[in-house]
Amino acid sequence: MKENIKFAILFPCILLAGGLLYLVAHELGHTIVAIICGAEITQFSILNAHMSYNGGTFSKVMYSLFNAAGMLLPIILIVPIIISYKRNKKSILYHCCYITACLWGISPLLAWLIVPVVSLLDSPPQGDDVAKYIMSSEWHPMTVFACALAILIGLLVLVIKKGIIPEFIEIIKGFSYKNNC
């Protein structure tokens, strides 16, 4: 199969699979903290991106961690994946999987940058993990923004240093060059 056709078929499928894995990790992050706090999990839905629980004893810190855990667990899982990246691999599938992991690991941090700014100007979205974190932790929204920005910059530096983005750009350029010839 031609490489550009393989890429056109594989990449959207890998993005979708990566999205589902992200949702599992996100909801699992909340679930782990709820279980640690003694809660009983009553619902865990990937397609609805929702989990619910009964009971449990949540301190202020643990409830804040509960709200942040949906963002933190995917990041904790993605860092060793990024570190294990080998730029010299020739497989398109390999590079597609890594860029997808990076996208799904890093892009949710955007909400942790946007919602704090929105909460300074207007009321934040109800039910949002970031808004709940700001309320439960009593951190100033700009402190939340600064922490999210620091995590994002750290991840981007790691991704760039490992060469994931430049290698992916080279793959894309190779396809567009082949199509123009």
TrEMBL record:
UniProt keyword terms in alphabetical order: Membrane, Transmembrane, Transmembrane helix
Segments crossing the lipid bilayer: 7-25, 61-85, 92-119, 139-160
Name this protein carries in UniProt: Peptidase M50 domain-containing protein
Organism, scientific name: Desulfosporosinus fructosivorans
